[in-house]
Amino acid sequence: MSSKRIIYLPLGGAGEIGMNCYVYGYGAPDKERLIVVDLGVTFPDMDGTPGVDLIMPDITWLKDRRGQIDAIFITHAHEDHIGAVGHLWESLGAPIYARAFTANLARRKMDEHGYGPETVRTVSAWPETVAAGPFTVGFLPISHSIPESSALVIDVAGERLIHTGDFKLDPQPVVGEAFDPDLWAEVSKPGVKALICDSTNVFSPAPGRSEATLSQPIEALVADAKALVVATTFASNVARLKTLAEAGDRAGRSICLLGRAMRRMIEAAVETGVLTGFPKVIAPEDVGSLPRENVMLIVTGSQGERRAASAQLSRGKYNGITLKEGDLFLFSSKTIPGNEKEVIRIMNNLSEMGVDVVDDSGGLYHVSGHANRPDLEQLQDIVNPQIVVPMHGEHRHLREHTRLAQKKGRAGVLAVNGTMVDLSGNAPTVAGFVETGRTYLDGSVQIGALDGIVRDRIRMALNGHVIVTVILDEEDEPLGDPWCDMMGLAEVGRSHVPLTDILEEDLSQFMGRAGEKTLRDDDKLEEGLKRLVRNSCLNEIGKKPEVTVVISRLA
Amino acid sequence: MSSKRIIYLPLGGAGEIGMNCYVYGYGAPDKERLIVVDLGVTFPDMDGTPGVDLIMPDITWLKDRRGQIDAIFITHAHEDHIGAVGHLWESLGAPIYARAFTANLARRKMDEHGYGPETVRTVSAWPETVAAGPFTVGFLPISHSIPESSALVIDVAGERLIHTGDFKLDPQPVVGEAFDPDLWAEVSKPGVKALICDSTNVFSPAPGRSEATLSQPIEALVADAKALVVATTFASNVARLKTLAEAGDRAGRSICLLGRAMRRMIEAAVETGVLTGFPKVIAPEDVGSLPRENVMLIVTGSQGERRAASAQLSRGKYNGITLKEGDLFLFSSKTIPGNEKEVIRIMNNLSEMGVDVVDDSGGLYHVSGHANRPDLEQLQDIVNPQIVVPMHGEHRHLREHTRLAQKKGRAGVLAVNGTMVDLSGNAPTVAGFVETGRTYLDGSVQIGALDGIVRDRIRMALNGHVIVTVILDEEDEPLGDPWCDMMGLAEVGRSHVPLTDILEEDLSQFMGRAGEKTLRDDDKLEEGLKRLVRNSCLNEIGKKPEVTVVISRLA
User: Fold this and answer.
1) pLDDT value at position B491?
2) Terminal C-alpha separation, chain A
3) Do residues B152 and B75 make contact, with C-beta atoms less than 8 angstroms apart?
4) What was the ipTM of the complex prediction?
5) What is the pTM (predicted TM-score) of this model?
6) Which of A323, A523, B102, B465 has the most other CB atoms within 10 Å of its CB?
7) Where along chain B do the CATH 3.40.50.10710 domains lie?
8) Element spanning B503, H or E
9) Residues of B numbered 293-352 whose beta carbons fall under 8 angstroms of chain A's beta carbons: which are they?
10) Cβ distance of A337 and B338 shorter than 8 Å
11) Distance between CA atoms of A544 and A180, rounded to whole angstroms?
12) CATH H-level, domain B5-206+368-448: superfamily
């Protein structure tokens, strides 16, 4: 028995914000039975992942232990916790457990990949529990910026672990369950070995604000508006959608939802009973028949996503609706780092249309879904865990959160993705390191982050691409002159002569001078031609392009 | 005389932040004598301008009127006002005027392009003036985040215009001249036709804070530090460098400057006498011989620039110096939108080293260099101009600033890049539109933003690149099979067979089926092969790549 251990292993989400995926195990080393918590994604960008569609954790370690996995638990339906279920499930195979709203959305994702609804099992809130191998797991309600977010109460080998998922301590979350300190205290009473805890807002010094604080300022803003009102927020923030819609409703406006993601969320929330009393909505085609001052649009695209409703409205007509001078556009959201330029672009497009833009810079129209520093302390006080394991955060967040735990006299452990922590003893110990990384969904194919494919794209984007074609006859003699095609390079450089002419002249001379040994050897020839092209380009246009050499030998 | 007019024409900086370039003219329509104010740059990014080195205004309109340009004035030495002088001067040819510190830096830039120091003429502050054609121009001191920033007092045809440049109203700027409301009132006394005014911070509701407010919190922070202290800020913020260095000095630390840009700024500031009393600095190689707690590094790279000192220190040893657990790293700066991810990356690298990072999130360690909304109002009250022309701002800033002017009972005009405004009458009128845009410095070549070169790079980055090679003999018959090279694409797709094999098979079949008419016609053949490859790739890997077809005909 003493050789068995409880392990915690983050494969995503620890050392970054997004792409959450955590593993718990119990058993003899490398024979552990495993459960997976969350299968999230993160989003690509031009800087590091051009052309990539989605970024997922590399779950090779889990694939290799497929037979040891007893269950997958999803804490809540944000994409960075649920987004990869459909893409990665095939490699894991275990049943997926979630509460009703999350399960509803998980089934939609599984359906897109051809998996039936039975792959996802709905679990009620604590005290209901699920038995999964040596684990007994319950969903403990906690407030967040999406309905039915839950912490997991994980009982294993006589120990209790609590994995918070994403959370805030909200006494009035507008939709869904308020944070219930008494329930949490009761669940923690038997003693909690480890609190595995969201770290996102550890640097925010003030206590978090309740979702309910927004209704008054939003109502005042909408009531004051003279023409059309448009509001955008995260599609999954059902409480915010309700606050916005109610503000519109009270101002005598008909509500219209624009954007597929938003309609899907509302649908799931209504189907599962988490959302009631949402004002009646009208169809986009009915907007035109109403006076502008009697309409409020609630739209997707708060992060500036190019294809979402906000961006499309800012570029012109969308669903038959055009914004005009005097309309009001509210960003009831924060801009996630990296999305600033896109959001600002939309704001300027709207400005060109004469639309007045209001955002949360004054602190009135958005609250965070994550627990701030004092809230993290409060939760620690309630749960009173022996160990705190910070998760869901960049390195700096995990480090600060570890310090916070230690300051409060608890054992804290800084474990980034791939760090296997043994939670069995009195203090956590690092049991080893697992290779982790990222898997890209690229078109319809999964590729590894280190396969070099995306690196090649970045190189072409930075340096341009030259294609050199040479043909050699049966005797390895050049047949005609080599030639060049270019993509992404200036056509004329310092000589004021077309760059391809210069390159072809240089290549021709090279082929004339090249000895038999070079001409016979593809590698040598390719290397020589590449070096020549790169140097000629550097001289002519100050850039060293990527070069592909195509050697054709007539045989 | 009545046919002559005063015009204002922004070519950069109006409708964007950065890349400032403004033109003033006086004369009969299209015969105006011209002066240019500022020749700035803006910086490329992977999203829109991969591989580009620098972005400059398209000055074709000025080039076409080279003979009409009497002078170029540079308000201050920030890159977005001075950065293009060396690159664009050849097309303009007119003398460059600036105050001593700015002129010093302009000469360094001109020197890099082989132009002598006489191309830049040093002007003293108001009341000294420069006669340039019909214009008389004086440099009116104003505070900003770089020494000797100046507004321009432009007298022409009996009217006075004031072009603010970038500014804040700082009574204690630490280095350089404080804002002098009495001087500004005196200069404005004869009546100011138009105030052409910085708009950057029009959305900031509180009055701006003085540079001097930072010394106390920075001193307290540094005094408290236990090991090495590193601080980063904008290299050009000489006042901040002084504040930082003095804080280190008072805490008994030796100061070491890291980063070329920073040393160059200090050098220029000392040479021109704007900076005095800067603490003695030590060389990087002397840092190692001192106890860590006796050293403070002031380093470049507050925006996360990959090659700057901050980034290099966060990745490991730089100039023989390595950061360690317990060191303190201060970002005395704000992060410019778009740079968030790079800055955060550095913070996390530092966290991994155990370095404590402090930034301005608490509002203690940075102040903006631009006038906030109440400051803009104050300046309007002092200058009392007939017209306000907002400049240096995105569309939303210009719009809000125009409204602010109108709210105060003045004529305001929203003029984005390319809008020619006639300032001769009682109210400003739009006299026409000029085509404007951006010129990229790409390697050593200037290319147009719309040349399609960068667009091709972006396409390769998003879609990958396939090169198809076919050889046809003298009778237009295929010689051997076509083949494929790929760059930036997954090697294997849904068939689990190498993608190039699948493509080559498809291409081979296509060539076999192709009729004489297609085989004889390069365009037809290319189009057919491209379409085939794109569709096969879509089917196999879910992506449509860029395709280059190389057709070789043996003749």
Assistant:
1) 96
2) 70
3) yes
4) 0.94
5) 0.95
6) B102
7) 211-358
8) helix B499-513
9) 337-338, 340-341, 344, 347-348, 350-352
10) no
11) 62
12) Ribonuclease Z/Hydroxyacylglutathione hydrolase-like (3.60.15.10)
